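>> received
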Amino acid sequence: MSPAVANPARLTPELAAEYPFESRFLAVDGGRLHYVDEGPRDAPVVLCLHGNPTWSFYWRALVKGLSDRWRVVALDHLGCGLSDKPQDWSYVLAAHVANVEALVRHLAL
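>> returned
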C-alpha cells in the first residue's frame, strides 16, 4: 500500500475539516497520483473519478456518506488536486486512463 499522509498540501483548517481523509500516493508515469481509500477493505468498491478541472474534494460528501459500508476510492488525476502537476507530462485522455488502470491494479480493485 502506498504511504498515507495526514495533510500533504497543508490544507487550511477549514478545508481539512471538509476533507478529513488520509491522503495516499501512487507513483505513476509522470509523477505522484493522489487518492483517498476509505472504508472496509473487504466491502464492495465505489471508484470516484472526477472531471476536469476538479479533484477528489468533489466527492467528499459521498466518501463520508458511504465509507461506513463501502470501500470508497477517489483519485486526483495528475495536474489536479493534491496530485503532482508535471509540466512535461502528456495530459491526453489515454494517459489519464493508464493512470486509473495502474491505480486499480495497485489496489487490486
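>> The beta strands are 4-5, 23-28, 31-38, 45-48, 71-76.
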